[in-house]
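does this look right to u?? 3-methyl-2-oxobutanoic acid version
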Amino acid sequence: MKNTAATLLAQKQAGDRITMLTAYDYTTARIEDECGVNSILVGDSLGMVMLGYENTLPVTMEDMIHHTAAVSRGAKNAFVVADMPFMSYQTSVYDAVVNAGRLVKEGGAHAVKLEGGAEVCAQIKAIVDSSIPVVAHLGLTPQSVNAFGGFKVQGKTFERAKQIVDDAMKIQEAGACAVVLECVPAKLAEIITARLTIPTIGIGAGAGCDGQVLVYQDMLGLTTGHTPKFAKKFAEVGMLMRQGFTEYIKETKAGNFPAEEHTFAIDSDIIERIKAGE
Ligand code: KIV
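got this back:
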Protein backbone atom coordinates (compact mmCIF):
# COMPACT_ATOMS: atom_id res chain seq x y z
CA MET A 1 0.00 0.00 0.00
CA LYS A 2 1.25 3.49 -0.90
CA ASN A 3 2.09 5.57 2.15
CA THR A 4 1.10 9.23 2.11
CA ALA A 5 0.78 12.08 4.60
CA ALA A 6 -2.81 10.91 5.11
CA THR A 7 -1.79 7.33 5.92
CA LEU A 8 0.76 8.57 8.49
CA LEU A 9 -2.00 10.62 10.14
CA ALA A 10 -4.30 7.58 10.11
CA GLN A 11 -1.50 5.56 11.75
CA LYS A 12 -1.28 8.11 14.59
CA GLN A 13 -5.03 7.95 15.06
CA ALA A 14 -4.99 4.14 15.09
CA GLY A 15 -1.95 3.91 17.40
CA ASP A 16 0.01 2.13 14.66
CA ARG A 17 3.62 3.27 15.08
CA ILE A 18 5.21 4.93 12.05
CA THR A 19 8.56 3.62 10.79
CA MET A 20 10.92 5.95 8.94
CA LEU A 21 14.54 5.32 7.88
CA THR A 22 16.97 7.42 5.95
CA ALA A 23 18.16 6.33 2.50
CA TYR A 24 20.27 8.15 -0.05
CA ASP A 25 20.48 5.73 -2.99
CA TYR A 26 18.34 3.45 -5.15
CA THR A 27 19.47 0.09 -3.76
CA THR A 28 19.02 0.97 -0.09
CA ALA A 29 15.65 2.60 -0.78
CA ARG A 30 14.49 -0.51 -2.66
CA ILE A 31 15.48 -2.83 0.21
CA GLU A 32 13.87 -0.61 2.87
CA ASP A 33 10.74 -0.29 0.75
CA GLU A 34 10.52 -4.05 0.20
CA CYS A 35 10.84 -4.54 3.98
CA GLY A 36 7.77 -2.34 4.41
CA VAL A 37 9.11 0.85 5.99
CA ASN A 38 6.36 3.51 6.00
CA SER A 39 8.54 6.45 5.05
CA ILE A 40 12.03 7.09 3.68
CA LEU A 41 13.82 10.28 4.62
CA VAL A 42 16.46 11.56 2.24
CA GLY A 43 18.15 13.39 5.08
CA ASP A 44 20.73 16.11 4.69
CA SER A 45 22.67 13.78 7.01
CA LEU A 46 23.89 12.55 3.62
CA GLY A 47 26.45 15.33 3.98
CA MET A 48 28.13 13.28 6.70
CA VAL A 49 27.30 9.65 5.94
CA MET A 50 27.57 9.77 2.13
CA LEU A 51 29.81 12.75 1.38
CA GLY A 52 32.12 12.81 4.41
CA TYR A 53 31.46 16.38 5.58
CA GLU A 54 31.68 17.33 9.27
CA ASN A 55 28.05 18.45 9.41
CA THR A 56 25.03 19.11 7.18
CA LEU A 57 25.83 22.74 6.36
CA PRO A 58 27.71 22.23 3.04
CA VAL A 59 24.89 20.13 1.49
CA THR A 60 23.45 21.76 -1.65
CA MET A 61 20.12 21.59 -3.46
CA GLU A 62 21.90 19.70 -6.27
CA ASP A 63 23.11 17.06 -3.76
CA MET A 64 19.60 16.67 -2.36
CA ILE A 65 17.93 16.42 -5.78
CA HIS A 66 20.50 13.88 -7.03
CA HIS A 67 20.04 11.56 -4.03
CA THR A 68 16.27 12.10 -3.74
CA ALA A 69 15.78 11.10 -7.39
CA ALA A 70 17.72 7.86 -6.80
CA VAL A 71 15.67 7.06 -3.68
CA SER A 72 12.39 7.85 -5.46
CA ARG A 73 13.25 5.32 -8.17
CA GLY A 74 13.73 2.63 -5.50
CA ALA A 75 10.75 3.42 -3.26
CA LYS A 76 7.50 2.00 -4.57
CA ASN A 77 5.32 2.34 -1.47
CA ALA A 78 7.21 4.41 1.09
CA PHE A 79 6.40 8.09 1.63
CA VAL A 80 9.56 9.85 0.40
CA VAL A 81 10.51 12.95 2.38
CA ALA A 82 13.43 15.09 1.20
CA ASP A 83 15.33 17.43 3.49
CA MET A 84 15.60 21.06 2.45
CA PRO A 85 19.32 21.85 2.84
CA PHE A 86 20.81 24.74 4.82
CA MET A 87 19.95 28.14 3.26
CA SER A 88 17.46 26.70 0.76
CA TYR A 89 14.49 28.04 2.79
CA GLN A 90 15.81 30.32 5.55
CA THR A 91 16.53 33.11 3.06
CA SER A 92 12.92 33.82 1.97
CA VAL A 93 9.47 32.36 1.54
CA TYR A 94 9.98 32.57 -2.22
CA ASP A 95 13.22 30.52 -2.06
CA ALA A 96 11.48 27.98 0.17
CA VAL A 97 8.65 27.40 -2.32
CA VAL A 98 10.95 27.28 -5.36
CA ASN A 99 13.36 24.81 -3.70
CA ALA A 100 10.59 22.63 -2.25
CA GLY A 101 9.14 22.52 -5.77
CA ARG A 102 12.48 21.37 -7.20
CA LEU A 103 12.70 18.49 -4.70
CA VAL A 104 9.26 17.33 -5.85
CA LYS A 105 9.62 18.03 -9.61
CA GLU A 106 13.24 16.95 -10.11
CA GLY A 107 13.70 14.59 -7.14
CA GLY A 108 10.30 12.91 -7.07
CA ALA A 109 9.85 13.60 -3.32
CA HIS A 110 6.36 13.33 -1.85
CA ALA A 111 7.11 15.84 0.91
CA VAL A 112 9.89 18.08 2.16
CA LYS A 113 11.33 18.51 5.65
CA LEU A 114 12.71 21.71 7.07
CA GLU A 115 14.11 22.67 10.46
CA GLY A 116 12.76 25.25 12.86
CA GLY A 117 9.63 26.53 14.61
CA ALA A 118 7.93 29.94 14.64
CA GLU A 119 10.66 31.48 12.47
CA VAL A 120 9.86 29.18 9.50
CA CYS A 121 6.06 29.08 9.78
CA ALA A 122 5.62 31.49 6.84
CA GLN A 123 7.73 29.11 4.71
CA ILE A 124 5.76 26.05 5.89
CA LYS A 125 2.44 27.73 5.07
CA ALA A 126 3.57 28.86 1.62
CA ILE A 127 4.95 25.41 0.71
CA VAL A 128 1.79 23.68 1.95
CA ASP A 129 -0.30 26.23 -0.01
CA SER A 130 1.66 25.08 -3.07
CA SER A 131 0.32 21.55 -2.44
CA ILE A 132 3.58 20.13 -1.07
CA PRO A 133 3.33 18.38 2.32
CA VAL A 134 5.86 19.62 4.88
CA VAL A 135 7.44 17.68 7.74
CA ALA A 136 8.80 20.00 10.43
CA HIS A 137 11.86 19.29 12.60
CA LEU A 138 12.24 20.53 16.21
CA GLY A 139 14.60 19.97 19.12
CA LEU A 140 18.16 19.35 18.00
CA THR A 141 18.07 20.83 14.52
CA PRO A 142 21.50 20.00 13.05
CA GLN A 143 21.54 23.00 10.67
CA SER A 144 21.76 25.18 13.83
CA VAL A 145 24.84 23.36 15.12
CA ASN A 146 26.86 26.58 15.27
CA ALA A 147 24.09 28.44 17.10
CA PHE A 148 23.69 25.55 19.59
CA GLY A 149 27.46 25.22 20.07
CA GLY A 150 27.41 21.48 19.28
CA PHE A 151 25.04 18.51 18.99
CA LYS A 152 23.30 18.73 22.38
CA VAL A 153 20.03 17.44 23.83
CA GLN A 154 17.41 20.23 23.63
CA GLY A 155 14.53 21.13 25.94
CA LYS A 156 16.07 20.40 29.33
CA THR A 157 15.33 23.85 30.81
CA PHE A 158 11.77 25.11 31.36
CA GLU A 159 12.23 27.97 28.86
CA ARG A 160 13.60 25.75 26.10
CA ALA A 161 11.06 22.97 26.77
CA LYS A 162 8.21 25.54 26.56
CA GLN A 163 9.67 26.98 23.37
CA ILE A 164 9.71 23.53 21.73
CA VAL A 165 6.08 22.87 22.81
CA ASP A 166 5.00 26.31 21.50
CA ASP A 167 6.90 25.77 18.23
CA ALA A 168 5.21 22.37 17.81
CA MET A 169 1.77 24.02 18.08
CA LYS A 170 2.81 26.75 15.63
CA ILE A 171 4.20 24.45 12.93
CA GLN A 172 1.00 22.38 13.17
CA GLU A 173 -1.08 25.54 12.73
CA ALA A 174 1.08 26.50 9.74
CA GLY A 175 0.10 23.21 8.08
CA ALA A 176 2.93 20.75 8.74
CA CYS A 177 1.78 17.14 8.23
CA ALA A 178 4.21 15.66 10.79
CA VAL A 179 7.14 16.72 12.95
CA VAL A 180 10.49 15.10 13.67
CA LEU A 181 11.52 15.55 17.32
CA GLU A 182 15.27 15.09 17.64
CA CYS A 183 17.14 14.66 20.93
CA VAL A 184 14.50 15.94 23.32
CA PRO A 185 13.72 14.35 26.70
CA ALA A 186 11.27 11.44 26.33
CA LYS A 187 8.71 12.93 28.74
CA LEU A 188 8.64 16.21 26.80
CA ALA A 189 8.18 14.33 23.50
CA GLU A 190 5.26 12.44 25.08
CA ILE A 191 3.52 15.71 26.01
CA ILE A 192 4.04 17.13 22.51
CA THR A 193 2.76 13.89 20.95
CA ALA A 194 -0.40 14.05 23.08
CA ARG A 195 -1.04 17.74 22.30
CA LEU A 196 -0.56 17.53 18.54
CA THR A 197 -3.05 16.06 16.10
CA ILE A 198 -0.24 15.51 13.55
CA PRO A 199 2.22 12.60 14.04
CA THR A 200 5.51 13.05 15.89
CA ILE A 201 8.48 11.03 14.63
CA GLY A 202 11.21 10.73 17.21
CA ILE A 203 14.95 10.28 17.02
CA GLY A 204 16.43 10.25 20.49
CA ALA A 205 13.01 11.30 21.80
CA GLY A 206 11.75 8.07 23.40
CA ALA A 207 9.02 5.56 22.64
CA GLY A 208 6.17 7.97 23.33
CA CYS A 209 6.35 9.45 19.83
CA ASP A 210 3.98 8.29 17.08
CA GLY A 211 6.91 6.93 15.10
CA GLN A 212 10.68 6.58 14.96
CA VAL A 213 13.37 7.55 12.47
CA LEU A 214 17.00 6.42 12.34
CA VAL A 215 19.95 7.08 10.07
CA TYR A 216 20.42 3.68 8.42
CA GLN A 217 24.20 3.67 8.71
CA ASP A 218 23.83 4.03 12.50
CA MET A 219 21.30 1.24 12.89
CA LEU A 220 23.20 -1.17 10.60
CA GLY A 221 26.55 -0.71 12.33
CA LEU A 222 28.13 1.09 9.37
CA THR A 223 29.06 4.25 11.27
CA THR A 224 32.59 4.41 12.60
CA GLY A 225 33.59 6.55 15.56
CA HIS A 226 30.97 8.17 17.76
CA THR A 227 27.41 6.95 17.39
CA PRO A 228 24.67 8.72 19.34
CA LYS A 229 23.20 7.04 22.45
CA PHE A 230 19.77 6.61 20.80
CA ALA A 231 21.13 4.84 17.71
CA LYS A 232 20.47 1.18 18.50
CA LYS A 233 22.49 -1.19 16.30
CA PHE A 234 20.03 -3.65 14.73
CA ALA A 235 22.69 -5.44 12.63
CA GLU A 236 26.47 -5.52 12.14
CA VAL A 237 26.55 -4.85 8.41
CA GLY A 238 29.83 -2.92 8.66
CA MET A 239 31.51 -6.04 10.04
CA LEU A 240 30.07 -8.19 7.23
CA MET A 241 31.31 -5.69 4.63
CA ARG A 242 34.81 -5.75 6.12
CA GLN A 243 34.77 -9.58 6.04
CA GLY A 244 33.63 -9.60 2.41
CA PHE A 245 36.15 -7.00 1.24
CA THR A 246 39.04 -8.69 3.10
CA GLU A 247 38.14 -12.12 1.71
CA TYR A 248 37.94 -10.71 -1.86
CA ILE A 249 41.42 -9.15 -1.52
CA LYS A 250 42.85 -12.38 -0.08
CA GLU A 251 41.34 -14.66 -2.76
CA THR A 252 42.23 -12.34 -5.64
CA LYS A 253 45.84 -11.99 -4.51
CA ALA A 254 46.09 -15.77 -4.05
CA GLY A 255 44.67 -16.37 -7.58
CA ASN A 256 41.67 -18.29 -6.17
CA PHE A 257 39.21 -15.78 -7.57
CA PRO A 258 37.78 -15.96 -10.18
CA ALA A 259 37.27 -19.74 -10.19
CA GLU A 260 36.09 -21.67 -13.26
CA GLU A 261 32.40 -21.17 -12.38
CA HIS A 262 32.88 -17.41 -12.60
CA THR A 263 34.25 -17.51 -16.17
CA PHE A 264 32.75 -17.85 -19.68
CA ALA A 265 33.63 -20.77 -21.98
CA ILE A 266 34.48 -20.68 -25.71
CA ASP A 267 34.82 -23.47 -28.33
CA SER A 268 38.40 -24.78 -28.32
CA ASP A 269 38.64 -24.70 -32.16
CA ILE A 270 38.04 -20.94 -32.07
CA ILE A 271 40.86 -20.59 -29.57
CA GLU A 272 43.14 -22.74 -31.78
CA ARG A 273 42.40 -20.56 -34.81
CA ILE A 274 43.05 -17.35 -32.79
CA LYS A 275 46.30 -18.83 -31.49
CA ALA A 276 47.31 -19.76 -35.02
CA GLY A 277 46.92 -16.11 -35.99
CA GLU A 278 44.14 -16.70 -38.52
O1 KIV B 1 19.11 14.45 8.06
C1 KIV B 1 18.62 13.52 8.72
O2 KIV B 1 18.95 12.34 8.57
C2 KIV B 1 17.62 13.87 9.72
C3 KIV B 1 17.26 12.83 10.72
C4 KIV B 1 18.34 12.75 11.73
C5 KIV B 1 15.95 13.07 11.33
O3 KIV B 1 17.14 14.97 9.73
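The longest strand covers residues 134-139. idk if thats expected tbh
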